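Regression report. Comparing outputs from two consecutive submissions.

Submission 1:
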Amino acid sequence: MNNCWLGMTEEQISILYKQSNLSVVNLKSEVFWTRSANAYLLFFTKQYEIEMNERTLGGSGMPLSKEKQNKERRQRLLQCSVDLFIEKGYFNTSIRDIILRSEVGTGTFYNYFIDKEDILKALLEDFAEEIITGISQYYTVEKDLYKRFVETKQLTMDVFAQNEALSEIYSRVTGTSAPIDQCLQQFEDRLIQFYSKNIEYGIKKGVFRNVSIPPVAHSILAMEKFLLYKWIVLKAITKEEMIEMVVSFHETLSAGLLMKQ
């Protein structure tokens, strides 16, 4: 028998429950049969049983396809999640917190999302789509590849600045768990792929030098992440300074990419 539960207080069990978010189901076999800790584990036991019983109301336990989901309800769940992640922190926010804040039933929640990681993934997917859509729309107006390369970075950082809460979550949760890192990698891979295609297009058009694309695309994202972190987490620079430095970096970078006339 694992003795790690012995002597734990009800508060510690409460924190454990919120952090586990029912994702570590094998806790049940250890926690429920630890006789010496039964008094302290009463809270955990009750909450676990409530969550498991309510979760079955969602049917198969798998979310509805996005096409069948109510857009307003989905957006409310996402916005309430962002608000709670900022107020309480990602790990201190439970599924129940999100359900109560959004005023939906438990079964309804699981018709939209599997767990918190699924919510984070959806938030980042929508975030990436907003960035890419904004840049793509700008491309239909501006044909000069140099201006595109520099000014789209202004657009990118404007999106980060306008979504301050989500930018803070993005900056703070890196490296906290494997599932979260996977969500972040998918988000960043999409941005890198988009940046790479734009550089490749400039090379094909004979505007940019024939350079190795992956190091350039990764350096762009790394610089954006660093300055975003300095603004949103460290408070070492202002939003305006962050955007100015990103644009300045790309002006310098583009000078090295441009073919000599």
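Submission 2:
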Amino acid sequence: MKLTKTTLLSLCLLATTTIPAFSLAAAVSADVSGLQQEWARIKYQVPGKDAKLQAIHALEDTAAATVAANPNKAEPLIWQGIILATDAGIVKGLSALGDVKQAKALFEKSLQLDPTALEGSAEASLGSLYYQVPSWPVGFGDDTKAEEHLKAALIISPNGIDANYFYGDFLLQAKRYDEAVKYLTTASQAPARPNRQVADTGRHQEIKQALAAAQKGAAKAAH
């Protein structure tokens, strides 16, 4: 191949456009991984409500900074939403609705950017909000919308631990026990996620408890 001035110019332009893109993707991935790891530590390993809140509030600041640095990336938005929803879960009550509404808006924005990001985590997370938040006039809870989003997550990640857990938990809350057993069993058999050992261990404990409740409910319904 003869390297003309035009060819050399094209190669130089390719280098200057692609290398920063890869660097940016790596930086976003590293930032998101940091949010994931700290969230798992807070949720599953930090004892006590006050300590959890202090840690999650600090992580909210980090998440907001990550989103500000990457305004058109779905992954940081998803994790900012998850962190705010976790804060709301710790606080509970009406005072948590502000964080829940903000989390909802973040998930919706991330879906506009990339509905498949993080294996459909925005769909699963949004669905979980819809079935756990009170319905109107207190909140925006809606079981129909919850199921729509949870099923959308399963289409993207049919064997994923979170997609199956959240849909299984939704079915458990709806007293659809046989269906809940099916999805919670799939969640319990989900493959381990790279670098997510703390999160997976904690999630498997939640799955174990939910599956036991679903099996107990199914057994009672059968008699």
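Expected: both submissions complete independently.
Actual: both completed, but the second showed a warning that disappeared on reload.
Relevant detail on submission 2: The CA atoms of residues 168 and 180 lie 4 Å apart.
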